[in-house]
Design a protein that fits this description.
- The structure is a single chain.
- The protein has twelve helices and five strands.
- It is an alpha/beta fold.
- The protein has a five-stranded parallel beta sheet, with helices on both faces.
- The radius of gyration is 21 Å and the shape is globular.
- It folds into two domains: 208 residues, Glucose-6-phosphate isomerase like protein, domain 1 (Rossmann fold); 43 residues.
- α7 links the parallel β3 and β4.
- α10 packs parallel to α12.
Length: 274
């Protein structure tokens, strides 16, 4: 039975009468509860990560699909994978109801189609090694439900991230991940605690997957893209630390030559017979 927790009335009332400090302290008090709501989800997140990695090693991809805030969070996580881990842009893909226009501006009724999500996935020529994660705080979004249902029928590993136990998406996904964050500070505004929980879970999924795929060495992003001066400086210092090079300019030159920390370190150690 669905527990429509995300629609329950806020624990607070007369918000418009509260002083700003009280508003902020109460929002912060509610936000503190989110990590504890995510903690019980770890076994299911682990199961999903363990399912993604072998499929990705066989050429599979990770798809996120959602509407509104949920869709935007999936796109955000997917877009951060290439610069952070140096992964291909088509390895983790985020889809949102209404298309890219909906990232900035809501598209009316885009999420109400049971067919649209699956049709978009078909345009990516999906296969059995791909994984689909449906993101829906309420757990009732037709766009997500339809995509999960069809993906599962076609043999894809499916998971969902929701905040309502027993919601329809939990019945469509092989691995339901349910973070029960309780009523929102502003009643029904799932961009708040629900969105925070979804972001935390997405961070855990993608980071753990990339680590298991070998895109982190020690605790460092050795395959990161050098997209700005800060990252070039960070990469240079990584090379100095990993190789023992004391000359910043020498380490910088190596980074510029090879383009990635990992490649620069490997080349240097090979030359030095380390």
């Amino acid at each position: 039975m669905i527990q429509n927790i995300t629609e329950q009335a806020s624990r607070y009332d007369r918000l418009e009468k509260m002083p700003v400090r009280e508003l902020l302290e109460n929002i912060n008090r509610e936000d503190h509860t989110v990590p504890q709501a995510v903690k019980p989800c770890i076994p299911d997140i682990e199961k999903l990560v363990e399912g993604i990695v072998p499929r990705m090693k066989e050429g599979g991809r990770l798809f996120y699909i959602g509407a509104g805030t949920s869709g935007r969070l999936g796109i955000l996580d997917a877009s951060e994978i290439p610069p952070t881990f140096g992964a291909p842009y088509d390895l983790v893909i985020g889809l949102i109801a209404g298309g890219d226009t909906a990232i900035r501006r809501a598209v009316e009724q885009a999420e109400d189609s049971m067919e649209a999500g699956w049709e978009e996935l078909l345009s990516y020529h999906i296969g059995v090694n791909d994984v689909l994660v449906g993101i829906a705080a309420s757990g009732t979004t037709p766009y997500v439900i339809g995509a999960l249902r069809n993906a599962r029928r076609h043999g894809l590993l499916t998971a969902c991230i929701t905040c309502n136990p027993g919601s329809p998406v939990t019945h469509e996904a092989e691995i339901p991940i349910v973070a029960v964050v309780g009523p929102e500070f502003v009643t029904g505004s799932t961009r708040m605690k629900s969105g925070t929980a979804q972001k935390l879970i997405l961070n855990m999924i993608s980071t753990a997957v990339m680590i298991r795929m070998g895109r982190v060495s020690g605790n460092k992003m050795v395959d990161m893209q050098l997209t700005n001066a800060k990252l070039v400086d960070r990469g240079t210092k990584m090379i100095m630390e990993d190789t023992g090079i004391e000359d910043y300019n020498q380490a910088h030159a190596l980074l510029m030559k090879y383009g990635k920390v990992r490649l620069a370190v490997e080349a240097y150690k090979k030359d030095q017979n380390v």
